[in-house]
Amino acid sequence: MRRAFVVGHPIAHSRSPLIHGHWLAEHGVSGTYERVDVPPEAFAGFVRNLAASGYAGGNVTIPHKEAAHALSHALTPRAERIGAVNTLVLRPDGTILGDNTDAPGFVAHLDQSLGADWPDRTGGTALVLGAGGAARAIVVGLAERGLARIRVANRSPERAAAVAALAPGIADALPWAEIPAALAGTGLLVNTTALGMKGQPPLSLDLAPLPERAAVADIVYAPLETPLLAAARARGLAAVDGLGMLLHQAVPGFEAWFGVRPAVTPALRAAIVADLAAR
């Protein structure tokens, strides 16, 4: 029986066991996927003992993604570029490969939600709000997808510039105050901040300047319909919620640990939506 995990601190809120448990049952795989709460001071020891613990690998969430990057024996080019790891794979020789599947997970969700031709239909431009770990992954993912221009806005100009530097020649930093003026030239607006999340103030932004072809994405999935997405739908714009990124980023890890490539299906999404509604 192969074992995998999601490690974080705290970790009780994670929906990853529901996702992977759904796929294990769907494909008849003999395996387990469990939550593991590890405080920062114990994380290095946890990673070093992966082989002895019988794990094939697992997911890494807050606050361990940067530490996982440092502790991996090898990194995928994407993880190296982003500077954070959310997926660990124990290789046959006992070494640990670190990957970042947030970037392709976000793009796969856009492809599924908007159609594979969305970069052309939206004009190939994006405005990313925020400069945390999610923004870093998303900027790299959008650059890999072939977007022509990506703007990064954050209240800290230095942090915005650092994220934009991940895609030289494509991305640039934008002062937070200039967001309204930049919307007219934006084909994809992405909120990576916590604004709009339960317990947080909404992201107050007038979407009127966005072109009619524009799409709006929010990585927040609790609530599933954030005020930003509600405003986008009210304007008749395509709106992409945050749950799909969570689902799609899980696909590569499951394949690496259990040997089967799963699909993000309506049944899986419905199961997670039901769990969100129950909490």
Automatic annotation (TrEMBL):
<dbReference type="InterPro" id="IPR046346">
    <property type="entry name" value="Aminoacid_DH-like_N_sf"/>
</dbReference>
<comment type="function">
    <text>Involved in the biosynthesis of the chorismate, which leads to the biosynthesis of aromatic amino acids. Catalyzes the reversible NADPH linked reduction of 3-dehydroshikimate (DHSA) to yield shikimate (SA).</text>
</comment>
<dbReference type="InterPro" id="IPR013708">
    <property type="entry name" value="Shikimate_DH-bd_N"/>
</dbReference>
<dbReference type="Pfam" id="PF08501">
    <property type="entry name" value="Shikimate_dh_N"/>
</dbReference>
<feature type="domain" description="Quinate/shikimate 5-dehydrogenase/glutamyl-tRNA reductase">
    <location>
        <begin position="124"/>
        <end position="193"/>
    </location>
</feature>
<comment type="pathway">
    <text>Metabolic intermediate biosynthesis; chorismate biosynthesis; chorismate from D-erythrose 4-phosphate and phosphoenolpyruvate: step 4/7.</text>
</comment>
<keyword id="KW-0057">Aromatic amino acid biosynthesis</keyword>
<feature type="binding site">
    <location>
        <position position="86"/>
    </location>
    <ligand>
        <name>shikimate</name>
    </ligand>
</feature>
<dbReference type="GO" id="GO:0009073">
    <property type="term" value="P:aromatic amino acid family biosynthetic process"/>
</dbReference>
<feature type="binding site">
    <location>
        <position position="61"/>
    </location>
    <ligand>
        <name>shikimate</name>
    </ligand>
</feature>
<comment type="subunit">
    <text>Homodimer.</text>
</comment>
<dbReference type="InterPro" id="IPR036291">
    <property type="entry name" value="NAD(P)-bd_dom_sf"/>
</dbReference>
<dbReference type="GO" id="GO:0004764">
    <property type="term" value="F:shikimate 3-dehydrogenase (NADP+) activity"/>
</dbReference>
<feature type="binding site">
    <location>
        <position position="102"/>
    </location>
    <ligand>
        <name>shikimate</name>
    </ligand>
</feature>
<feature type="domain" description="Shikimate dehydrogenase substrate binding N-terminal">
    <location>
        <begin position="6"/>
        <end position="88"/>
    </location>
</feature>
<dbReference type="InterPro" id="IPR041121">
    <property type="entry name" value="SDH_C"/>
</dbReference>
<feature type="binding site">
    <location>
        <position position="221"/>
    </location>
    <ligand>
        <name>shikimate</name>
    </ligand>
</feature>
<feature type="active site" description="Proton acceptor">
    <location>
        <position position="65"/>
    </location>
</feature>
<dbReference type="GO" id="GO:0008652">
    <property type="term" value="P:amino acid biosynthetic process"/>
</dbReference>
<feature type="binding site">
    <location>
        <position position="242"/>
    </location>
    <ligand>
        <name>NADP(+)</name>
    </ligand>
</feature>
<dbReference type="Pfam" id="PF01488">
    <property type="entry name" value="Shikimate_DH"/>
</dbReference>
<keyword id="KW-0560">Oxidoreductase</keyword>
<keyword id="KW-0521">NADP</keyword>
<comment type="similarity">
    <text>Belongs to the shikimate dehydrogenase family.</text>
</comment>
<feature type="binding site">
    <location>
        <begin position="130"/>
        <end position="134"/>
    </location>
    <ligand>
        <name>NADP(+)</name>
    </ligand>
</feature>
<dbReference type="InterPro" id="IPR011342">
    <property type="entry name" value="Shikimate_DH"/>
</dbReference>
<dbReference type="Pfam" id="PF18317">
    <property type="entry name" value="SDH_C"/>
</dbReference>
<feature type="binding site">
    <location>
        <position position="249"/>
    </location>
    <ligand>
        <name>shikimate</name>
    </ligand>
</feature>
<dbReference type="GO" id="GO:0009423">
    <property type="term" value="P:chorismate biosynthetic process"/>
</dbReference>
<dbReference type="GO" id="GO:0050661">
    <property type="term" value="F:NADP binding"/>
</dbReference>
<feature type="domain" description="SDH C-terminal">
    <location>
        <begin position="242"/>
        <end position="270"/>
    </location>
</feature>
<keyword id="KW-0028">Amino-acid biosynthesis</keyword>
<protein>
    <recommendedName>
        <fullName>Shikimate dehydrogenase (NADP(+))</fullName>
        <ecNumber>1.1.1.25</ecNumber>
    </recommendedName>
</protein>
<feature type="binding site">
    <location>
        <begin position="14"/>
        <end position="16"/>
    </location>
    <ligand>
        <name>shikimate</name>
    </ligand>
</feature>
<dbReference type="InterPro" id="IPR022893">
    <property type="entry name" value="Shikimate_DH_fam"/>
</dbReference>
<dbReference type="GO" id="GO:0005829">
    <property type="term" value="C:cytosol"/>
</dbReference>
<dbReference type="InterPro" id="IPR006151">
    <property type="entry name" value="Shikm_DH/Glu-tRNA_Rdtase"/>
</dbReference>
<feature type="binding site">
    <location>
        <position position="219"/>
    </location>
    <ligand>
        <name>NADP(+)</name>
    </ligand>
</feature>
<dbReference type="GO" id="GO:0019632">
    <property type="term" value="P:shikimate metabolic process"/>
</dbReference>
